[in-house]
Amino acid sequence: MDYSPLLLSCKLAGISTLFLLLFCAPLAYALVFLPVRGKLFIESLIGLPLVLPPTVFGFYLLLLMGQQGSLGHLYNLFFGHSLLFTFTGVAIAAMLHSIPYVVQPLKASFSRIDRRLLESASVLGCSKTSCFFRVVLPNSLPGLAAASILSFAHIMGEFGVILMIGGSIPGETRVASIAIFEYVEAMRYEKAGQLSLALLVVSYIILLTVNILEKRNNDS
Asked: How many CB atoms lie within 10 A of CB 68?
């Protein structure tokens, strides 16, 4: 059995989750603690992937990342080839589609922090950036872990957006969910079953980890 699509899914989920945390943690901090203008509009925009069908979201990403799209044209100028049907393009699509799965848990975790800690840090001369690194992040480790796991799990199971942006190129964009779909289409049910079982085990472990973290966070 070829498990390379599953390994590619893990690679995609791991890299995308890392970059999502780097981007979404400051974003969630700003939405919770800073007086951001138009906050409701920004939060609604962030939450769009939760309600839009993946095909609709993927279609607009296809326009944005294609040769005529602003992101695709810029990428082509710097790297000399299209962003579509590449691992990089799939990773960008996966990250954009998974932003709410990271921002929402981080916002919930940041909101539980006692604001008196931030006030005390500010009185002691900490800037907002220092407060973020010295107060907010150390007191939000369960939230960071939950956001990481939810993002990883969501990207592992992503199908529609990845198919529209990356197609099915072995070793490049053919992740586990797409490989299972192709096996079923070809009536190769044994291979589809083996890969589905592997993905089921990984998904269960991820969900179990989230539940353990939530229980520890509630007990503390």
From this structure: 8
Q: What tokens does 220 get? A: 């503390």
Distance in angstroms (rounded) separating the CA atoms of residues 17 and 151: 6
Q: At 91, phi and psi to the nearest 5?
A: -65, -40
**CATH of span 4-219:** 1.10.3720.10
Please report, for the chain, how many H helices and E strands are present, in that order: 12, 0
Predicted TM-score (pTM) of the model is 0.88
> Cα 72 to chain center, whole Å?
20
Q: How many residues are present in the chain?
A: 220
Q: What's the rounded Cα separation, in Å, for the pair 65 and 61?
A: 6
For residue range 23-58, list pLDDT tens digits in order: 999 999 999 988 888 888 999 999 999 998 888 999
Query: In this predicted model, what pLDDT tens digit does every residue of 178-214 receive, in sequence order?
Result: 999 999 999 999 999 999 998 888 888 888 887 787 7
Q: Convert the pLDDT of each residue in 106-143 to its tens digit.
A: 999 898 888 888 778 777 777 888 888 888 888 888 88
pLDDT for residue 27: 94
The residues, ordered by sequence, that sit 6+ positions from 83 with a Cβ below 8 Å of its Cβ are: 65, 66, 71, 72, 75, 76, 89, 92
- Of the candidates 169, 200, 199, which has an alpha carbon nearest to the alpha carbon of residue 182? 169
Residue with tokens 């299209």: 82
Is the model's pLDDT at 219 over the cut of 70? Answer: no
Q: C-alpha distances in angstroms, 86 versus 31, 92, 143, 162, 203? A: 33, 10, 31, 10, 25
